[in-house]
Write a structure and sequence with these properties.
The chain is mainly alpha-helical. The chain has helices at residues 3-28, 34-39, 43-66, 70-94, 100-105, 109-129. It has one domain (3-129). It has six helices and no strands. It is elongated.
Length: 131
Amino acid sequence: MNPYILTLLYFIVAVVIVVVGLVIFELITTKYKDWDEIQKGNTAVALSIGGKIIGICIILAFSIYNNDNIRTTAIWGGYGVALQMIAYYLFDFLSRKFPVEMELKKGNTSVGIVSMCVSIGLAFVIGASIT
């Protein structure tokens, strides 16, 4: 296939997966609405969502590097979204001293940074496992 068309198709798949992932994250964050908080200037929520976007894209990039078709990349992307959700819940569970969603809603930048790092860090681990 023409490399320009293939790149466009990978781009479209990536955008769709990221958008679907963000919609799912919006639904599971029950204490606030991500985009409303970002519009208000909530840096903590922006960092957390940014980490999820970067994390999903890292997994997609590893999939593109290691596979030769769009279908496989889409499957890994969906798997990446699911694992990012697990990472979010794991982070929330392990930080029982404070509720992550409430801290993000309050604009706690430190929690936003850690949330971002969890998403990005685990994306590299997940991506490295893709063969």
